[in-house]
């Protein structure tokens, strides 16, 4: 019974968020917002299918991670996705805002159908890409019907405002703003962030994202799936 109530609460929370966004988001694409932790196969499967399956051209963005500057670690970000046999699967990582504003760097977006934002520190994503040509390409991908997914930091960065840190009092920064009127807080259950989210969402809709919880928003229709393991 405890397990059922827990999953039902997660699902209801995600569905309320999804339902509230239909008239606010003028983008045709899909967003997969995942709370962090180990991603269930059903989440990866759904993302891969929405990206285009064998025809998908996918960019993995590890920039939020402290390992992103180490090329020898990049395969670890790609490996979980290789089994889907995408037409193209590559790393996208800019080391600076100058690189993120270099039109030559934007050639990597040619033909891309999906982007995945890995976990880490969400402020790294915004510091590197916020307001740059790369950020414009992210939004253009959604505008033409593409898909962007993110876990942990990649989830938090989707909203505007964005929770950047803080234990009980949230530190608020400006995120990418793909979900107007919403704010995500990841690792909600494991790290006891109910107080932080309550303060951050006092004037907007706030939604918790526990480890391995996914909320999906697609065009004018949306659905949400809660797949987090309940607490003991």
What labels would you give this structure?
232 residues; alpha/beta; Rossmann fold; 7-stranded mixed beta sheet; two-stranded antiparallel ribbon; 22% strand
Question: What can you tell me about this protein's structure?
Answer:
- This protein is of the alpha/beta class and 232 residues long.
- It has one domain: Rossmann fold (3-Layer(aba) Sandwich).
- The protein has helices at 2-20, 41-51, 74-78, 97-100, 122-129, 133-143, 153-156, 194-200; strands at residues 30-34, 57-61, 88-91, 114-117, 147-151, 162-165, 171-173, 182-186, 205-209, 214-218, 221-225.
- Helix 3 (74-78) links the parallel strand 2 and strand 3 (88-91).
- The model is unreliable at 1-25, 189-193 and 202-232 (pLDDT under 50).
Strand content: 15-25%
Overall number of structural domains: 1
Largest sheet data: 7 strands, mixed
Q: In the CATH hierarchy, what is the superfamily?
A: Class I glutamine amidotransferase (GATase) domain
Main CATH class: Alpha Beta
Shape: globular
* Helix/strand/pairing category: alpha/beta
- If strands are numbered along the chain, what order do they take across the biggest sheet? 3-2-4-5-1-10-11
Low-confidence stretches: 1-25, 189-193, 202-232
Instruction: Give the C-alpha Rg.
Output: 17 Å
State the end-to-end CA separation.
12 Å
Briefly note the CATH topology name.
Rossmann fold
**Roughly what percent helix?**
25-40%
CATH architecture: 3-Layer(aba) Sandwich
Number of helices: 8
String of helices and strands: HEHEHEHEHHEHEEEHEEE
Number of strands: 11
Could you tell me the mean pLDDT?
75
